[in-house]
C-alpha cells in the first residue's frame, strides 16, 4: 500500500520545509493577517493557512490518492492512508513571537498511526516516531522519564481556546492536580507537550476538548518512547478528545486524580 520508510523520509523533508515557511512569516508578525474562527479566542493566521496549503500540495503531488485532514481546511479525499496536519500548533505562541509552537504531521494507515513528526522551527528540534521503531529527537533515541511518584512529577496541560462559555473546563482539575504534582508547565502546543513527555523533559500531560490533529503525532511519540497514553478513564474510547499521557510509571496515580473530574458519557 505504501513504503513506510520512503514516506518517513518524505515526511521529514516536508515538515522541515513547512517549518522554514513558518519562520518567514514569523519575521513579519506585526503585519500578519489574523482571522477569528469559532470564538474570539480561536484564531487563525495567514501563516497557518499558508503552511497547510504547502503541505497539502506536497502530499498531493507525492501521494495523490491519499486523504488529508488538516486543521484549517478539514478533510479531503478518502483512502486507507491519511495524513493528519496541524500546520501551526500553538498559534498564540507563534503570534506573540514565542518559541514553543510546532508543525505536527502524522500518517495513518488503515486507522492506525504509523509515522509521526513534530518540528519546532524556532528551536530547530525535530521529533520523529515510527511504529515499532522508536521515537527520536534530531536522530537521537528518546525515552520517557523514570519518575516513580506523581509528587515528583512535572506535568503540562492546556486551556483550549474554545473554553469560553463551556460548562466543563480544565480549571477545577488543574487546581486539584497542582496539589499532587511537583510543578507545572504550559507552552501552548499540545504536540510539543507530548514530545516533551516522550523525551523525559516532562513526566505527564493531560488535556480535554482537543482534536486529533493536535495530538495524533504526539501520541505515537509518547508510546514509541515507552510511555502510556489513555483517555481519562484509562482506556482508549475517549481519545483524542481527552488525553492523559505519562511515563507509564505514574499513569495509575494520575488517573486516580483525574477520574473524579470525568463527566459521564
Description:
The chain is an alpha+beta fold and 265 residues long. It folds into two domains: 4-141, Fructose-1,6-Bisphosphatase, subunit A, domain 1 (Fructose-1,6-Bisphosphatase, Chain A, domain 1), CATH 3.30.540.10; 150-261, D-Maltodextrin-Binding Protein, domain 2, CATH 3.40.190.80. 31% of the residues lie in helices and 26% in strands. The protein has seven helices and 15 strands. The strands form three sheets. The chain has an eight-stranded mixed β-sheet, sandwiched between helices. It has a five-stranded mixed β-sheet with strand order 12-11-13-15-14, with helices on both faces. Strand 8 (125-130) and strand 9 form a beta hairpin. The longest helix has 23 residues, at 4-26. The radius of gyration is 18 Å and the shape is globular. The termini are far apart. The model has no long low-confidence stretch (mean pLDDT 92).
Topology:
Layout: H1 4-26, E1 34-36, E2 43-45, H2 46-62, E3 67-70, E4 74-76, E5 81-89, H3 91-95, E6 102-109, E7 112-120, E8 125-130, E9 134-137, E10 140-141, E11 154-156, H4 171-177, E12 183-185, H5 190-198, E13 204-208, H6 212-224, E14 228-230, E15 242-246, H7 251-258
